[in-house]
Amino acid sequence: GLADEVRAAADTVRASIGGLRSLLLDIYPPSLVTAGLEAALNDLVSTLRARGTVVRLDIGDTGLDAAGERLVYRVAQECLHNIARHAAASNVEVRLEREERHAVLAINDNGVGFDAPDLLANPKDGHFGLRVLGDVVADAGGELLLASAPGAGTHWQLRIPLP
Questions:
Q1: Is the separation of the CB atoms in 70 and 34 below 8 Å?
Q2: What DSSP element (H or E) covers 103?
Q3: What's the pLDDT score for residue 17?
Q4: CA nearest neighbour of 26 among 89, 65, 60, 70
Q5: Residue 132 pLDDT greater than 60, yes or no
Q6: Quick count: other Cβ atoms within 10 Å of Cβ 55?
Q7: Which of 47, 83, 106, 123 measures 20 to 30 Å from 94, CA to CA?
Q8: Do residues 97 and 61 lie in contact, with contact meaning Cβ atoms separated by under 8 Å?
């Protein structure tokens, strides 16, 4: 009996480890390390393009270090995921550039928009990704700005101080 319980616990642990590995690949894909940020961002926007969304991707040389690239990727991933799920946008622009001593990621869509202050103040049950994302950015010394209104699309801006 005890052996069966140990085997069941081991199976549960193996399944959990597999799930964590899958999650890590979603958050930090191998293409980010092996092919670079531009390739990883191209992979992200391919989902929107496959749905017929026109996506303009403009990636400049920013001088980001590896931690900065991971942060840009994570923010872009969350923003593009939200656009795909909620925005019904026909056009999306993703721009990464250097502005003086900052790397700036701007993601704009022409989708349905939403009441940003209300959503941030009163997130739906289980929907706290935007708040967590803001905390992650703040912990890295960056700033995440959001502008949206019903019918007006959504505009994100991530500003990261360069090393």
A1: no
A2: strand 102-109
A3: 62
A4: 70
A5: yes
A6: 21
A7: 123
A8: no
Residues facing residue 102 across a β-bridge: 99, 161
Instruction: Read off the amino acid at residue 43.
Output: D
Edge-to-edge strand list for the sheet holding 54-59: 54-59, 91-99, 102-109, 154-161, 143-148
Helix, strand, coil content of the chain in percent (nearest 5): 50, 25, 25
pLDDT at site 128: 64
DSSP string covering 97-123: EEETTEEEEEEEE-S----HHHHHHSP
Question: In the numeric block, which tokens belong to residue 122?
Answer: 């009163």
Angle (nearest 5°) at CA 110 between 144 and 84:
75
Q: Name the phi and psi angles at 109, rounded to 5.
A: -135, 160
Q: Residue 109: helix, strand or coil by DSSP? A: strand
Distances (CA, A) of 60 to 57, 82, 106, 134, 153: 10, 24, 12, 24, 24
Gap between the Cα atoms of 99 and 133, Å rounded: 22
Coil, strand or helix: which one is 93?
strand
- Which pair of structure tokens corresponds to residue 66? 């590896």
Q: How confident is the model at residue 32 (pLDDT cuts 50, 70, 90)?
A: confident
pLDDT by residue (tens digit) across 80-120?
Answer: 999 999 999 999 999 999 999 999 999 999 999 998 888 77
